[in-house]
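ingest -> validate -> predict -> emit
validate: passed (alphabet ok, no gaps, 760 aa)
predict: started
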Amino acid sequence: MRDSRAVILLVVAALFAGLGAGCSRDPNVRKQKYLESGNRYVEKEKYREAAIQYLNALQADPRFVDAHYKLAQCYMRMGIYSEAYRELNRTVDLQPDHVKAQIELGNLLLAGREFQRALERAELALEKEPNNVDALILKANALAATENLADSLKEMQEAIRLAPERSGSYLNLAVLQLGAKKVPEAEASFKKAVELDPKSATARLALANFFQTQARWADAEEQIRNAIAADPKNHLSYAALARHFLAQNQRDKAEQILKDARTSLSENPQGYRLLADLYFGLGELQKATDEFGALYQQHPKDLRVKKNYVQLLILMGRLEAASAFNDEILKENPKDVDALIHRGQILNKQGRSNDAIHVFEAALKSEPDNPIAQFHLGLAMSVVGNVGRAEQAWREAVRLRPTMVAAYQALAGLAFARGDWESLNANAERIVTVMPQSPDGYVLRGAARIARNNFAGGEADLKRAIELAPGHPIGYSRLGALRAAQKNYREAERLFEQALEKDANFVEAMQGLVGLHVVQKQPARVLPRIEQQIAKAPNNASYHFLKGTWLNGLNELEKAQAAFEQAVQLDKNSIEALLALGQVHNQRGRLEQAAVAYQQSIQQNPKDPRAYMLLGSLEEARENWPRAKEQYEKALQAQVDYPPAANNLAYLLLEQGGNVDLALSYAQVARRALPESPNVADTLGWAYYHKGIYGQAITVLQEAVKGIPNNPTFHYHLGMAYKKNNDVARAKLHLMRALELKPKEKVAESARKSLAELGG
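emit:
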């Protein structure tokens, strides 16, 4: 009996298992389960997990409208607007009368400045639901964007007539009225929004913002404090009050408010992070780092605090600590995209850019639409010299996040380097659009306009930059450069000095002053002015470097060395200072010390070919030919077509009996990059000579002699080429000239021997 009962139980279990399997194979059941699971994740604000479930639902049924729509909403919450746009489009393609999707699609188009298309979506929604208030508001906003303000206000009034109790509608009306310069009406609408919903922080903060634009500071503060009283747990009100005080240069009050928020909102991550975010926004990285470090101790489970702390440690150059915390995150979740991006940043700063590229690519494999990963991939690609791929990554970053100013700035930097003023202007325009109250876009656009001889437009942009950020030095400095170009030297000097008053460490302005004194033939003013600035900013490595460079030009090598050593002591990562220090040591005959400086530079940046090049020249001076050859080859590994190394390696091969064909190829590389260089022409001509192509050798060597007429080696090479070409008279002429110029050098011995062979 016991056995038969067991058999029955097994049969029943198998039957239920079969039923379960049957259900799981039903795509309609499966898709509904995934949809419900996604909805539960949304309730918990776990949008990434919800998106995965909606995607699973769409795998079961690619035409599942609800899943497409819900997925679009997840993407919007996650800030992935390109994917949200795609999913909303798919929703309305499958169900054109999905009014909510049409409206949300219209709002995305409006944000993307596609005003006419947004208006079309509003019209489609209104065809289905003529009294839909959200569709009317979308239409009103789209009309306002196309500067049809009268019709815009009519549509907005109709939306309010249909739903007169909606506080948000009055806020929207107020904004449109401000656009139409109806300020009293706008104030009435803001106040009506507050009247309808007195506990709404949004309405009170909007009214406060209006008062701020009217410089009615007391009224604004009252509204913000009322917002805090109405909803004491709303972090946005504390943030608004801090901004209110900052706008009035009351920094202490702003900080105190956010310190209060840290205590009052100790259970709200967005609240207790406000002070740290303020420090970061103000560029006070040390304070931000300290604050996030303290928050991490208090809230060790807040992953966002930990990630922000890691990011700040990276920015502060504390890579070992950043890596340790970041590895903890990756140990918990090896596919955490933020942590992968941080690891890539650390590797890039450690000079391991190729490794960083692999990490960023892994992050993008997990999250293809991550604009931050694309941006940092572009930075790593630019370091390894793959400018085309860097540009592609940055363009993808701004496609994914049209408000990413850092990517526009990177693209602007590329455009500036290429002299592509149209592209520079376009990227500057985008920065101005995204951040109209920041000086950055105006400064870049000013540069583009000046480069295209639109001096009035450029000047207007630079003055706007100064107006927006009167405490920032860049506007003054760039306007100073414009005045210098216009030969208005007195005004240029005044502006450069103003820039340095705003920021004693603003190197660009100091360089401008030095250039100004040189142009005006006032070299005696340069060194005292640099030393005056060092007294104000003694820890600025760039000023010590500038001092060393000037002293080196005066041939005061011992003092120059001291200045460069101070620069290196202040900034051990300064490649320029290390290279300059090495060159001064070299000039003073201190070759071992020069080699040490060059090796330090290589350790700091193994991808910079200059240190290898200088080390190769040093070894060549010591007649250590194999070591010199090795260093030139390393320079070319760091940068394949680096012309000075290609030139020197070619000459070394020719002089030391190396492969002539290889030497010729290197000489041609150098020639393509430096077609006007007499030294490069001499190397190429000498390579042709060794190949037995004497006619071409003569042509190129003539260029070298013409470029530097008193170089005995050039005359010797040209004389030898004429000798092989059986032009005895010209051969003697140049060989004798080589002998006259340096009668006691090695080249003179060779010239004397060849002249004897010619009977001269």
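The two ends are 128 Å apart (CA to CA).
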